């Protein structure tokens, strides 16, 4: 297991960034971490990297406690927001620094990537473009040869072409080296291209966690004449109503046999946005669903128009 968290909570003074997070990320997967600003994504990644310690609960990464010693640190690569590099150091200086700080450093891999990317080893990092800085930071993370690579919004400031190149390089590295990746991003379309698992954080809590294909298979959009009830076994994630029509996103493993419903498939973006929506008090008759417990289940949201 790459990451295992149980009742993980992190507070900064009076502000709670994460609340009781419980999740499992299997080894060897590319996991997308998504949520609104302030959801706790950077906090979770910093805890996994050993940059922060929990207020309560536990987190285990690659079989050990994050930041517990040199052996544990070699297992995890971490690229913080905005792909930080040292502006005054050259590309070659970065590679030398990486070799000095990491016992498992793969110098051949680092130099081969720098050459393939067309980076001038004599160029100071502060003079590189945003895409080049991101690629340099990724090179540093990969050449460490970690078991798990944590990337916090690595492509947020890049143009579409630079994002595509970065993600393509990342996927090639995943296939070649077999490492696991947890990738935080607001850009769901990018996550859909590269991730096989997804975690949705909202309000410091895990709202959804699982395999992308499996989650899409059990979520559906239902449209039909307005009604105030559903058969048992269908958990309502969101509901919108007009005077005559109801449109629901539901989670169910059972077939939907009611001919009054038009059943539609969801994209990953549809699913993420549904679980990012904050719960709200209903303004009219409720659409009832059974009590739902466990990861990825929460009270129904009803929007009445």
TrEMBL record:
Cross-referenced Pfam families = ABC_tran (PF00005)
GO function term, MF aspect, one = ATP binding
Tell me the ranges covered by the ABC transporter domain, including all copies: 3-228
Q: Which residue stretches does the UniProt record annotate as biased composition, category Basic and acidic residues? A: 288-305
Stretches the record annotates as Disordered:
281-305
* CDD domains documented for this protein: ABC_DR_subfamily_A
What InterPro entries does this protein map onto? AAA+_ATPase (IPR003593), ABC_transporter-like_ATP-bd (IPR003439), ABC_Transporter_VariousFunc (IPR051782), P-loop_NTPase (IPR027417)
Keywords associated with the record: ATP-binding, Nucleotide-binding, Transport
PANTHER family xref list: ABC TRANSPORTER ATP-BINDING PROTEIN ALBC-RELATED (PTHR42939)
Name under which the protein is recorded: ABC transporter ATP-binding protein
